[in-house]
Each structure stands twice: as structure tokens, then as C-alpha cells.
UniProtKB/TrEMBL annotation:
It comes from the Eukaryota. GO terms for cellular component: mitochondrion. This is Probable glycerol kinase. It catalyses: glycerol + ATP = sn-glycerol 3-phosphate + ADP + H(+). Gene3D superfamilies: 3.30.420.40.
């Protein structure tokens, strides 16, 4: 399994090895660095296998999982990216989004939701592509001359691994396509009306495939000839890795952001409470797609990196658990880390981060505790919205991702949600999900994903330990702080 962003340890999760911040609100990656990290991953994997006396020829398939909305445009003749990859967190498209919403009937940001399952937001790929077409001459000229290729990170990786400009396969899977705003979640294909709305030429788009089939074969490296047969956006991969194959099952992944997905079966459920409707997975060409309700939080683990790198109150990400534990409370301090605006359930790009409730008694340990609570409060907002949409409250929440090694955070989460939090002992479910999709593909067939064949997973359980009144009081104060963060930033000149 190759992930465009290594998740090998709790500390590595917050290092942003490929992220750049060239301007305020801008977040970029270098597509060449991404693919080089993939090749390095391949070679290191082969070296490890050799040390374990495992023959590389025993590798039957590989899977790809990726940041879903991060946008890449490249020249199909030279194989050279035409611009940096614009990351899902990036806010440069705020004015683009406002212009798109202004031309919608009633200036409704949900104008396209009946087809896409998504609000018009800086989050999704189509607005990033629109910005590139409007602002980068190299991209515009490449499109006009028929040389441009567009894709999310999975498309870029698969194209490069299967030969690049010498016959590379230009494809994506349904989970990544469903995050572009150019994909119709009902027809399961690119939509000409959506492409027209964003003024995006359909010929630059990748072919849409299922999440589990052979797309092509590695053309070089120590794994040359091995099929690439699994492709899932990272949150869908975690859903598969958590084995949430039954309608009603849900997981929450704690990474840079926080992402809760609830399996809604083969029928898409359109949210009335600020959630996204997305394709969960399609595990084979001839099987139906499953859908999910999703709540997306922009800043979760990234707040720990901010405390470390920007404020310097911790030296390593893992230190936050010890520091927060020394306080045991935020002592009335509330932290809304709206560094990239607020995602679900608000979809408010004008929000900015605030810390409130400060007194002369407040110290760095209270701030650390408030940062962890912020992750939990944001998750509570998502869970409440999900319960309202589905009308079936979750009795427990399955969790994964690098932050789940923080036991204080997990206990806080159980306390604030008032439900059991279940953490598998193998928390790297994103990697596992991509591997499961790859191994289950027709022509590979090393896994069987029917429920009767799935292994039992050992887990840690966190039960709520505070009374409901205290939890509700703290949550109400949090929501008050959220309102203070709204409407802070505008696109007007400073």
C-alpha cells in the first residue's frame, strides 16, 4: 500500500513532510516529491522484505490511498506537473467559491448538492482546478493545446507508476471522483452539467473505475510487473480497513483533520444537517457502490503541530498528552482551531481560529487540554448531525489514525460524546483498507471481503466517565466560542 503521506508513527503524522505554506491560507505539495516518496516507499519495502527473507515475487498487488481533494494538473507529453498540488486545506479559492455561489439560484451554496452530495466549498477539487485555469497561464495553455491532465493524487500516482508519458493509465476511483464536484453520485460518472457549471473541459478528466480492480502494472522499480488493483480515498480506505461493511456502522479518523463516515448502504442519503454525501467504496466493477454520510473537520492533529511549531509550547507532538494531563481541565479556556475556516456542519470559510475564556491563571497546560478538547467537540458536532440525519443514534464510535495513540484524547472523546469509543490495536486502517481493496480485486483474489471471512479485531474500549450535565455544559460553551469565530475574514482588500 502506498500512501502519499506517511503515517508510520504518531510523531510522523504531524511532520507534514510534503506540505508548503507559500502564503497565508495557501497549502501546497510538490507532485514530484509525492511520487519520489512513493518510489522510496517501494524500495524500502523491498529492502525490508529481503531482510525478512521474503521474496518480492510474493507480492501479488499494491493499493493506493491518498488525500482525496488535493489537486494536480500535469503535462501528459512531458510528465511534468504544471503547478504545485493544491492541498484540500487550501483557502486561496475563497473568492472563486463566492463567485460560484453568487451565480447559483438564490445564492445557495447547496445548489449542486442533489447531484454531488457536496456544498460549494474551498474544500473540493473543482474549485481548485477552476482557480488554476483562471490564474496559471501554463495550465490554461496546456488545456488549450490538449496536453493537460487533471487528477487527484491517486490519479497522479497511478499514471506515474504505470508508465507516465510512456503509456501511463489516467484513471481515478469512484471515492476520489465523488470529491471533485464534477461527479454525479447517482449516475456514477462525470456530469456534463457540473463540468459546464465550473467551466472545466471533460477531456482532461481521468477515467472513472471501481475501488477494486486491476488498473495497470508497475512499469519500473523493484516491483515492476506487479498490478495496481486497489484505489480508495483515505477516509474510504479507513472505513474499509475498519470493516464497516454494514449499513449504520461508522468510523472516525484522527489525522491532520478529522473525518467521520457512516455507511448508509447502496442508497445515498442527502444530509439536512451540514454533512456530505459521498461514495464510500465500490469493491469491484460489477458490484454496487456503497455510500456514506461524512462529517469533515479541517483541523484536528494539525492543531498539535501548530502548538509545537508556531507556539513552541511542546517539542514533540507526543508531549501534548503529558502536558494536558498536568492540568486535567482547560479551566474555562476554549480553542476553536478554524485555521482553514470551518467545515462540517457549518461550511463557513470566513471563520478563523480563536482562543477564548483566558484568565491570568491560564497556562500552556490548559491550552494543550483545550486543543485536545477542540478535536473532541468538533467530533461531537459531527456525531450530533449524523444522528439527526440517520435518526438512529450511534451506540459506539470506531476510531483510527495517528492521534488515537493519545489515551487522554480517547477518554476525552468518550466523555464528550457520551458513547463508547473503540480503538483497534492496529490503528493504521487506511493502509489496511487499501491493501484489502487491492487483494480482493478480480484477477488477484488473495482476500475475501465477505463478512463471514473477515477476521476478528482486538480493540481498546473507552467508556464515558463524566456525568451528562458536565459534558453538555462544556459542549454548550464550545458552541458559544464557535459563534465568536464566524464571519471573521472576508475577501475584501485589507
Amino acid at each position: 500500500m502506498f500512501h502519499s503521506w506517511p503515517h508510520s508513527s504518531y510523531e510522523r503524522l504531524f511532520l507534514y513532510p510534503l506540505f508548503y505554506f507559500p502564503k497565508e491560507g495557501w497549502v501546497e505539495e510538490d507532485p514530484q516529491e509525492i511520487i519520489q516518496s512513493v518510489y522510496e516507499c517501494i524500495e524500502r519495502t523491498c529492502e525490508k522484505l529481503a531482510q525478512l527473507n521474503v521474496d518480492v515475487s510474493s507480492i501479488k498487488a499494491v493499493g493506493v490511498t491518498n488525500q482525496r481533494e488535493t489537486t494536480v494538473v500535469w503535462d501528459k507529453e512531458t510528465g511534468v506537473p504544471l503547478y504545485s498540488a493544491i492541498v484540500w486545506l487550501d483557502l486561496r479559492t475563497q473568492s472563486t467559491v463566492e463567485n460560484l455561489i453568487n451565480k447559483a439560484p438564490g445564492k445557495d451554496k447547496n445548489h449542486l448538492k442533489h447531484k454531488t452530495g457536496l456544498p460549494i466549498s474551498t474544500y473540493f477539487s473543482a474549485v481548485k482546478l477552476r482557480w488554476l485555469l483562471d490564474n496559471v497561464d501554463e495550465v490554461r495553455q496546456a488545456v488549450l493545446s490538449g496536453r493537460a491532465m487533471f487528477g487527484t493524487v491517486d490519479s497522479w500516482i497511478i499514471w506515474c507508476l504505470t508508465g507516465g508519458s510512456s503509456g501511463g493509465v489516467h484513471c481515478t476511483d469512484v471515492t476520489n471522483a465523488s470529491r471533485t464536484m464534477l461527479f454525479n453520485i447517482h449516475t456514477m460518472d462525470w456530469d456534463s452539467e457540473l463540468c459546464s457549471y465550473f467551466d472545466v473541459p471533460m477531456e482532461i478528466l481521468p477515467t472513472i473505475r471501481s475501488s477494486s480492480e486491476i488498473y495497470g502494472y508497475l512499469k519500473s522499480s523493484s516491483m515492476a510487473g506487479v498490478p495496481i488493483s486497489g484505489c480508495l480515498g483515505d477516509q474510504s480506505a479507513a472505513l474499509v480497513g475498519q470493516m464497516c461493511f454494514e449499513e449504520g456502522q461508522a468510523k472516525n479518523t484522527y489525522g491532520t483533520g478529522c473525518f467521520m463516515l457512516k455507511n448508509t448502504g447502496t442508497t445515498p442519503v442527502i444530509s439536512d444537517h451540514g454533512l456530505l454525501t459521498t461514495v464510500a467504496y465500490k469493491l469491484g466493477r460489477d458490484v454496487p457502490a456503497c455510500y456514506a454520510l461524512e462529517g469533515s473537520v479541517a483541523i484536528a492533529g494539525a492543531v498539535v503541530r501548530w502548538l509545537r511549531d508556531n507556539l513552541g509550547i511542546i517539542k514533540s507532538s507526543a508531549e501534548i498528552e503529558t502536558l494536558a494531563a498536568t492540568a486535567g481541565t482547560s479551566y474555562g479556556c476554549y480553542f476553536v482551531p478554524a485555521f482553514s475556516g470551518l467545515y462540517a456542519p457549518y461550511w463557513e470559510p470566513s471563520a478563523r481560529g480563536i482562543i477564548c475564556g483566558l484568565t491570568q491563571f491560564t497556562n500552556k497546560s490548559h491550552l494543550a487540554f483545550a486543543a485536545l478538547e477542540a478535536v473532541c467537540f468538533q467530533t461531537r458536532e459531527i456525531l450530533d448531525a449524523m444522528n439527526q440525519d440517520s435518526r438512529v443514534p450511534l451506540a459506539q464510535l470506531q476510531v483510527d489514525g495517528g492521534m488515537t495513540s493519545n489515551r487522554l484524547l480517547m477518554q476525552l472523546q468518550a466523555d464528550i460524546l457520551g458513547v463508547t469509543v473503540v480503538r483497534p490495536t492496529m490503528s493504521e486502517t487506511t493502509a489496511l483498507g487499501a491493501a484489502m481493496a487491492a487483494g480482493a480485486a478480480e484477477g488477484v483474489n488473495v482476500w475475501n471481503l465477505r463478512s463471514s471471512h473477515l477476521p476478528k479485531v482486538t480493540c481498546e474500549m473507552y467508556e464515558p466517565q463524566i456525568n451528562t450535565d458536565e459534558s453538555e455544559f462544556r459542549f454548550a460553551r464550545w458552541k458559544k466560542a464557535v459563534q465568536r469565530s464566524m464571519k471573521w475574514e472576508t475577501t475584501e482588500a485589507h
